[in-house]
């Protein structure tokens, strides 16, 4: 049994949707969550800068004792996961990718829709996923500028967010898609609202449960599951800690009132994998 925590990082609160799904599957596992909200949104960053940030976030979680790192962000997974696996060859990583394959497997109409951030919508990575798994489907890619920003800002029930959803979901509704995939980890936090607007004709799918199952599988393969141990949860933020604390109480329903504000370690020493920073 390995009681070390699982480490999660995201640009903000979106990755809490992945932690929430993982917690349901693995209630005995302790978890560290690091919100890099000082650099939100990741879609505005160049790929090189994002890879360097991801390396520093990983290094911090490793110093905190993480036994596995979850890149709980679609944009960071697309642009940094391969780099992280090269930089930290002995560390197990699990990423989050747009749910193209499950959509293609489950659709009856062969018409699917995918809500994403602008950065993911324009990425060659998403295009490759569609070409590989959904070549026989009509795929409607819906770029949603500003949507994750409103969720991050705690405005998930605002009229502005409702208006954006009405606008963004119109192509999915008119396309006849029977499945809608959520391609950003912020979006499952407003999944119920999205499902109501889509109506009963289309099922909304996110990647949280699939990522949780993958985490469980990797830990089982390595013999590092924490079966039967009491779980604990720690939250860290590079920016405003109060927003993460509010989101954790709302979406995780845990009495977490404090979040530790942290400074990221310096540049990672790529020649040796990573340089252990002081905390």
Please explain how this structure is put together:
The protein has two domains: 6-96 and 209-272, Rossmann fold (3-Layer(aba) Sandwich), CATH 3.40.50.1860; 100-206, 3-Layer(aba) Sandwich (Rossmann fold), CATH 3.40.50.1860. It contains eleven helices and ten strands. It has helices spanning 16-25, 47-63, 74-87, 100-106, 118-121, 124-133, 147-152, 159-175, 191-198, 208-222, 241-252; strands at 6-10, 31-35, 68-71, 93-94, 111-116, 138-143, 179-182, 203-205, 233-237, 260-261. Strands 4-3-1-2-9-10 form a six-stranded parallel beta sheet, with helices on both faces. The chain has a four-stranded parallel beta sheet with strand order 6-5-7-8, with helices on both faces. Helix 1 crosses helix 10 and helix 4 runs parallel beside helix 6. Residues 268-279 have low confidence and may be disordered.
What's the structural blueprint in terms of helices and strands?
Layout: E1 6-10, H1 16-25, E2 31-35, H2 47-63, E3 68-71, H3 74-87, E4 93-94, H4 100-106, E5 111-116, H5 118-121, H6 124-133, E6 138-143, H7 147-152, H8 159-175, E7 179-182, H9 191-198, E8 203-205, H10 208-222, E9 233-237, H11 241-252, E10 260-261
Parallel strand pairs: 1-2, 1-3, 2-9, 3-4, 5-6, 5-7, 7-8, 9-10
């Amino acid at each position: 049994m390995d009681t070390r925590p699982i480490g999660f990082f995201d640009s903000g609160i979106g990755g809490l949707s992945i932690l929430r799904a993982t917690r349901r599957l693995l209630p005995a596992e302790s978890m560290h969550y690091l919100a890099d909200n000082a650099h939100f949104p990741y879609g505005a960053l160049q790929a090189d800068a994002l890879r360097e940030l991801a390396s520093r976030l990983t290094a911090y979680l490793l110093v905190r004792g993480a036994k596995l790192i979850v890149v709980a962000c679609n944009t960071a997974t697309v642009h940094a996961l391969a780099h992280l696996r090269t930089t930290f060859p002995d560390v197990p990583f699990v990423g989050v990718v747009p749910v193209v394959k499950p959509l293609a497997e489950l659709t009856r109409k062969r018409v699917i829709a995918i809500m994403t951030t602008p950065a993911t919508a324009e990425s060659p990575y998403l295009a490759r996923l569609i070409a590989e798994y959904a070549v026989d489907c009509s795929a409607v890619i819906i770029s949603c500028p500003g949507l994750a920003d409103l969720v991050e800002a705690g405005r998930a029930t605002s009229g502005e967010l409702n208006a954006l959803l009405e606008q963004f979901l119109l192509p999915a509704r008119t396309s006849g898609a029977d499945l809608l995939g959520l391609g950003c980890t912020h979006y499952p936090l407003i999944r119920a609202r999205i499902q109501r607007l889509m109506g009963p004709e289309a099922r909304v799918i996110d990647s949280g449960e699939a990522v949780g199952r993958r985490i469980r599988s990797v830990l089982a393969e390595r013999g590092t599951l924490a079966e039967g141990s009491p779980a604990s949860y720690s939250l860290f933020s590079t920016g405003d800690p109060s927003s993460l604390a509010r989101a954790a109480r709302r979406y995780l329903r845990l009495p977490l009132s404090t979040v530790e504000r942290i400074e990221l370690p310096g540049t990672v020493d790529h020649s040796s994998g990573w340089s252990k920073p002081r905390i």
